[in-house]
Structure formats: structure tokens, C-alpha cells
Amino acid sequence: MIAAVLAWLVPGAGHFYLGRRRRAGLFFLLIMTSVVLGARLEGKLQTAFQGLLESLATLASIGTGISYLVLRFVVGYSGDVSSAGYEYGGAFLLTAGLMNLLLVIDCWDIAQGRKV
Question: Any residues with CB less than 8 A from the CB of 35 and at least 6 apart, and which?
């Protein structure tokens, strides 16, 4: 359970906790690069639970863990609809969250002994 929570909170931290240091570094770099690119392109950070698709997109965004919390509550980031990269940036942010959620599941499987 600790590995899964760490994996959600900080991308790669769950794998690091499980002793997979190289994999952890690669995953951290991959997820954080996607988050930074999404924010630099001023993509939409999903924040609303209004309808099924919007709710699923918000859960996907929350999948990035601490970076979502920092972007939303510390920086006050939401994206800029007039930006040329708005749609692409939003796609990067959503993809980062979904990739990190897959890594949480991967950590869970490794910790349970289902995956080597």
C-alpha cells in the first residue's frame, strides 16, 4: 500500500521504494516532462466534476499526484484557452495523469508479488 501511495504522490517514488531505482528515475522523468510540457503549452488542467467525461478527465489529471496539487492550489494554474497550445497542453496533462495511474497499478502488482 505504501508503494502505491508513493507512486501516486510522486511519479517513480513507488518504484524507488520497491528497489527499482533506474525504472523510478525514468518514470519520474517521463511523467514530469509531460506535466511541464502541458503547463508550458498552457493546456487545460481539468478541475470540475460536472458530467461523466469532465469527471473522468479530472480524475485523470489528479493522477499526476503532487504536481496536480501544486499546479492547482499553490500556483493557481488552470490553462489559457487563447493559447495556441491549449489543446495539446491539455492532452499532455491528461496523458501524464493516466500514465502515472498505470504506474500506481504496476507498483501495486510488484508489491503483491504478481509481477517481477
Answer: 64, 67, 71, 92, 93, 96
111-to-3, 78, 79 alpha-carbon distances in Å? 7, 35, 36
pTM (two decimals):
0.91
How many alpha carbons fall within 13 Å on the CB side of residue 77?
Answer: 25
Q: What is the pLDDT of residues 56-108, one digit of tens each?
A: 999 999 999 999 999 999 999 999 999 999 999 999 999 999 999 999 999 99
Gyration radius of the chain's alpha carbons? 14
The alpha carbon of residue 20 and the mean position of all alpha carbons in its chain are separated, in whole angstroms, by 19
**CA pair distance 25, 74, nearest whole angstrom:** 25
In angstroms, the CA 48 to CA 50 distance is 6
